[in-house]
Amino acid sequence: MYKVTVLYGHPQDPDEFERYYFENHLPLAAKLKDVKGFTAGKVVSLNPNQSSPYYRMGSLYFDSPEAFESIFASPEGRAVVADLQNFATGGVSLVGNEEQVFVPLTLSQVREIYQS
User: Considering the entire predicted model, what is its pTM?
Assistant: First the structure.
Protein backbone atom coordinates (compact mmCIF):
# COMPACT_ATOMS: atom_id res chain seq x y z
CA MET A 1 0.00 0.00 0.00
CA TYR A 2 1.30 3.46 -0.88
CA LYS A 3 0.44 6.35 1.44
CA VAL A 4 0.63 10.05 0.65
CA THR A 5 0.44 12.38 3.64
CA VAL A 6 -0.57 16.01 3.21
CA LEU A 7 0.79 18.26 5.98
CA TYR A 8 -0.90 21.64 6.30
CA GLY A 9 0.92 24.54 7.94
CA HIS A 10 -0.90 26.77 10.42
CA PRO A 11 -3.46 28.80 8.45
CA GLN A 12 -4.00 32.53 8.80
CA ASP A 13 -7.65 31.91 9.76
CA PRO A 14 -8.20 28.45 11.31
CA ASP A 15 -11.99 28.76 11.34
CA GLU A 16 -12.09 29.60 7.63
CA PHE A 17 -9.64 26.77 6.92
CA GLU A 18 -11.91 24.27 8.68
CA ARG A 19 -15.02 25.54 6.92
CA TYR A 20 -13.45 25.39 3.47
CA TYR A 21 -11.70 22.07 4.11
CA PHE A 22 -14.92 20.28 5.05
CA GLU A 23 -17.37 22.08 2.78
CA ASN A 24 -15.27 22.35 -0.38
CA HIS A 25 -11.96 20.51 -0.40
CA LEU A 26 -12.99 17.12 0.98
CA PRO A 27 -16.02 16.84 -1.35
CA LEU A 28 -13.67 17.62 -4.24
CA ALA A 29 -11.19 14.97 -3.03
CA ALA A 30 -14.04 12.46 -2.66
CA LYS A 31 -14.35 12.49 -6.46
CA LEU A 32 -10.93 10.85 -6.84
CA LYS A 33 -11.29 7.34 -8.22
CA ASP A 34 -9.39 4.32 -6.91
CA VAL A 35 -8.25 5.89 -3.63
CA LYS A 36 -8.13 2.95 -1.19
CA GLY A 37 -8.55 4.95 2.00
CA PHE A 38 -8.36 8.38 3.62
CA THR A 39 -7.65 9.65 7.12
CA ALA A 40 -7.54 13.20 8.47
CA GLY A 41 -6.95 14.92 11.75
CA LYS A 42 -5.63 17.96 13.55
CA VAL A 43 -2.01 17.69 14.58
CA VAL A 44 -0.92 18.12 18.21
CA SER A 45 2.59 18.20 19.58
CA LEU A 46 3.52 15.43 21.99
CA ASN A 47 5.98 17.81 23.63
CA PRO A 48 4.06 20.21 25.92
CA ASN A 49 6.87 22.79 25.56
CA GLN A 50 6.64 22.90 21.79
CA SER A 51 3.90 23.71 19.32
CA SER A 52 3.31 21.44 16.37
CA PRO A 53 4.90 22.52 13.08
CA TYR A 54 1.68 21.49 11.31
CA TYR A 55 -1.98 22.33 11.80
CA ARG A 56 -3.73 19.41 10.11
CA MET A 57 -2.81 16.32 8.15
CA GLY A 58 -4.54 14.00 5.77
CA SER A 59 -3.38 10.66 4.39
CA LEU A 60 -4.54 9.01 1.19
CA TYR A 61 -3.89 5.36 0.38
CA PHE A 62 -3.21 3.92 -3.07
CA ASP A 63 -2.27 0.54 -4.53
CA SER A 64 1.13 1.86 -5.68
CA PRO A 65 3.13 5.02 -6.38
CA GLU A 66 2.10 4.64 -10.01
CA ALA A 67 -1.58 4.57 -9.03
CA PHE A 68 -1.08 7.78 -7.04
CA GLU A 69 0.59 9.47 -10.02
CA SER A 70 -2.15 8.34 -12.38
CA ILE A 71 -4.96 9.48 -10.10
CA PHE A 72 -3.42 12.92 -9.57
CA ALA A 73 -2.76 13.31 -13.30
CA SER A 74 -6.52 12.97 -13.90
CA PRO A 75 -8.74 16.07 -14.17
CA GLU A 76 -10.13 15.31 -10.67
CA GLY A 77 -6.63 15.02 -9.22
CA ARG A 78 -5.45 18.24 -10.83
CA ALA A 79 -8.56 20.01 -9.45
CA VAL A 80 -7.76 18.82 -5.90
CA VAL A 81 -4.18 20.11 -6.16
CA ALA A 82 -5.30 23.43 -7.68
CA ASP A 83 -7.82 23.88 -4.86
CA LEU A 84 -5.08 23.98 -2.20
CA GLN A 85 -4.33 27.62 -3.00
CA ASN A 86 -7.92 28.50 -2.04
CA PHE A 87 -7.54 27.69 1.66
CA ALA A 88 -4.08 26.38 2.66
CA THR A 89 -2.65 29.76 3.65
CA GLY A 90 -0.06 28.16 5.94
CA GLY A 91 1.48 26.12 3.13
CA VAL A 92 1.32 22.44 2.26
CA SER A 93 3.92 19.66 2.28
CA LEU A 94 3.38 16.22 0.75
CA VAL A 95 5.31 13.07 1.59
CA GLY A 96 4.83 9.52 0.38
CA ASN A 97 5.85 6.12 1.65
CA GLU A 98 5.30 2.42 1.14
CA GLU A 99 3.14 1.61 4.14
CA GLN A 100 3.78 -1.62 6.04
CA VAL A 101 1.28 -2.50 8.75
CA PHE A 102 2.53 -4.87 11.45
CA VAL A 103 -0.37 -4.79 13.88
CA PRO A 104 -0.85 -6.98 15.87
CA LEU A 105 2.78 -8.10 15.54
CA THR A 106 5.12 -7.63 18.47
CA LEU A 107 8.23 -5.48 18.23
CA SER A 108 10.42 -8.60 18.16
CA GLN A 109 8.42 -9.92 15.18
CA VAL A 110 8.93 -6.63 13.37
CA ARG A 111 12.70 -6.86 14.02
CA GLU A 112 12.71 -10.37 12.54
CA ILE A 113 11.00 -9.11 9.38
CA TYR A 114 13.53 -6.32 8.92
CA GLN A 115 16.52 -8.52 9.67
CA SER A 116 15.55 -11.22 7.16
Answer: 0.84
